[in-house]
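Pasting as-is:
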Amino acid sequence: MTYLEKLRLAQAKNHSWLCIGLDPQRAKLPLVAQWQWDEPLLPFNKAIIDATADLVCAYKPNLGFYLAWGAAGVIALERTIAYIPDHIPIILDCKTGDIAHTQAAWAEGLFDAWEVDAVTVNPYVGAEAVLPMIGERPSKAVYILARTSNPSAIQFQGDLTQAAGLSATVLRESQGWETAGHKGYVLGATYPEELAIARRLAPQANFLIPGVGAQGGDLATAVRFGPDAVAGPVINASRSIIHASSKLDFVDAARAAARELRDRINQIRQQHAG
């Protein structure tokens, strides 16, 4: 099964384009988790997954939030990946972007050992950041950084509204890289006017769209220009869901926040379909 097929099936099963970022922050963990659990990351993640697995199309843990806990965090990440239901795609957000043998080692660890379905990749070094990852892995995918959601992204990434600059170059040039796996793109919802241009430059690519939660990105534009010919976009929210509450009700609050965002996305989908 290809990555896009797995994603499409998960989206259909849960009627969802929502991806939850499993990015636990130490200062925002509920006090009950800190009191009851010596190593709170894994039980916290399990609780969030149990509460939301019927509402999402993917989960996206970010490596940085686990490295912050040292070796215990890496172990928690590995066990979190193993705990996620098999039918739900796992996108590991690590923004790796090295060359040749190093990138191949990343791929071996993340795809072959941990068995994640997709990773985020920084394309600054060119095709060598992507080809060792999915050149011969048809069931895997990379999401190439095209336009990130942070405020200073434009400093180096350029003005995509004019189809110019680094973001536009990445979208154009990477179309010619022949891979067995899928090439998707990270496109922040905080730059909504650029999503239509990105879709025109990469008409067949799946989009991973961060920034619609705490960062306040434009959800309607993400829904309108996010879909490709096979699947819907992966619309990610992290803090606004997993840290919706720091009290005893954190599980219920996370589920409520996930359901609310999933339903908002679906309402917009219906408006465009009509």
